[in-house]
């Protein structure tokens, strides 16, 4: 099998490189390189740069304003954007809600919701998880009671990523209280500034403010904000999750992380020798790099399959598990290379013996701690194994 790029794909790769050379501002790539938390302004600025080029909605079909890329072109864009230290595209509107509206939304919703995502004017966040409903999502309790032309929403969501920058939220709510839990869930769109919505920050282990909890008290939501049919939201919820998992594999991020890890292992010295010359450490790098090469192929194979059938299937759980394992192993090796300097906050780094400046050490440490999340969100890796067992082995 010939896995090299075709001349057209190589030309596309060059076009992407030229684009990043000319259009990615240094302050944005410097912020990504630093490993510190990106501000909402930086993420929005990057989204608008891509939007102006027509490259923001990388997975959307042309009819909805996407670039109509093939899976290989999307892969090339992913790899190059990481190589140039571009931020990750915030997925909630683009990779999650967009496909939902395209497949389940009515014409009015397509007209009203999709342009705001495509222009990067609207920032959506995801209101799925609740304090008592994470892995067991169907047990969610946030309720929407019908009152004439409105739903009255009460309850709480949690772990709402980047909700502090969002002006909109899509939520799973309970609209039926008897029968099977899955058959009483609906998918509702809300504006964050609706009276009765309150957002509070949750701090992550490395100190970042990336997630929030959201409280709903008698929030009046027009019935026209319902996507699909009442009580049929579970089908939409599952459709969205398969899209979410495809993106979490993070091939481009891990390819960049391998390069950074090798650079680190060439810099750091143990017992007078460079760490890369330690056969045990070098073997661990080689093993994770081999895994990554295998996942690149699997990722492309699944992207092609998704393109053929029109949507990703349950096999995206494989990408989610393997992709996050690889990424966490890479960050773990970087942490090991740093030794005592692997403290999560810049202020904690005092070890002057390493051939690293403290800010580099802090960035690596922060990435290690921050990446503990990847095997949990989007459905934990244990839950992905359950999905694979049930759906692929047809148990
Ligand atoms: C950083 C971060 C960002 C997130 N962002 C969002 C967001 O934007 N929007 C959103 O809605 N949610 C978000 N989440 C929530 C995420 O989807 C949940 O954390 C996840 O689904 C796990 O649910 P839980 O935290 O309630 O853990 P639990 O469901 O309580 O699970 C606890 C542990 O038990 C294991 N477990 C549970 N059930 C089973 C089972 N049946 N078989 C085997 N093992 C099991 C789990 O794997 C886990 O290890 C985010 C989470 C994190 C950490």
Describe the structure.
With 395 residues, this protein is α+β, with helices and mostly antiparallel strands. It has helices at 7-23, 26-34, 40-53, 71-83, 91-104, 107-118, 233-248, 251-267, 279-309, 316-338, 358-370, 381-392, and strands at residues 124-127, 143-147, 150-158, 168-174, 185-191, 197-202, 211-222, 226-227, 269-270, 273-274. It is 48% helix and 14% strand. The strands form 3 sheets. It has a 4-stranded mixed sheet. Strands 2-3-7-6 form a 4-stranded antiparallel sheet, with no helix packed on it. Helix 1 packs parallel to helix 4 (71-83), helix 7 crosses helix 10 (316-338) and helix 8 runs antiparallel to helix 9 (279-309). Flavin-adenine dinucleotide binds next to strand 1 and helix 12.
């Amino acid at each position: 099998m010939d896995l090299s790029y075709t001349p057209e794909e190589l030309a596309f790769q060059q076009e992407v490189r030229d684009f990043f050379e000319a259009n990615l501002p240094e302050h944005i790539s410097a912020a990504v390189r630093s490993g510190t938390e990106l501000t909402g302004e930086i993420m929005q600025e990057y989204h608008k740069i891509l939007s102006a080029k027509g490259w923001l909605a990388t997975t959307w079909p042309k009819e909805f304003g996407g670039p109509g890329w093939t899976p290989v072109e999307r892969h090339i864009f992913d790899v190059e954007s990481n190589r140039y230290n571009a931020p990750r595209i915030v997925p909630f509107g683009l990779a999650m809600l967009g496909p939902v509206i395209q497949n389940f939304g009515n014409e009015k919703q397509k007209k009203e919701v999709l342009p705001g995502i495509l222009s990067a004017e609207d920032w959506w966040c995801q209101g799925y998880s609740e304090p008592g409903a994470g892995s067991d999502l169907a047990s969610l309790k946030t309720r929407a009671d019908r009152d004439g032309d409105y739903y009255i929403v009460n309850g709480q969501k949690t772990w709402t990523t980047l909700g502090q920058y969002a002006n909109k939220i899509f939520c799973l709510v309970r609209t039926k209280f008897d029968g099977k839990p899955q058959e009483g869930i609906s998918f509702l769109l809300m504006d964050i500034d609706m009276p009765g919505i309150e957002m509070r920050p949750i701090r992550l282990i490395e100190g970042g403010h990336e997630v929030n909890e959201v409280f709903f008290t008698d929030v009046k939501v027009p019935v026209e904000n319902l996507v699909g049919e009442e009580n049929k939201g579970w089908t939409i919820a599952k459709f969205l999750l398969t899209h979410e998992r495809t993106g979490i594999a993070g091939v481009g991020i891990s390819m960049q992380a391998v390069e950074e890890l090798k650079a680190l292992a060439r810099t750091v010295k143990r017992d007078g020798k460079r760490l890369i010359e330690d056969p045990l450490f070098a073997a661990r790098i080689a093993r994770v790099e081999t895994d990554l090469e295998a996942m690149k192929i699997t990722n492309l194979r699944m992207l092609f399959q998704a393109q053929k059938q029109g949507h990703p299937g349950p096999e995206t759980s494989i990408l989610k598990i393997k992709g996050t394992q690889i990424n966490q192993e890479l960050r773990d090796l970087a942490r090991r290379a740093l030794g005592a300097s692997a403290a999560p906050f810049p202020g904690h780094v005092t070890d002057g013996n390493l051939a690293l400046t403290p800010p580099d050490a802090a960035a690596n440490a922060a990435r290690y701690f921050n990446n503990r999340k990847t095997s949990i969100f989007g459905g934990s890796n244990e839950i992905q194994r359950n999905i694979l067992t049930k759906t692929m082995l047809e148990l």
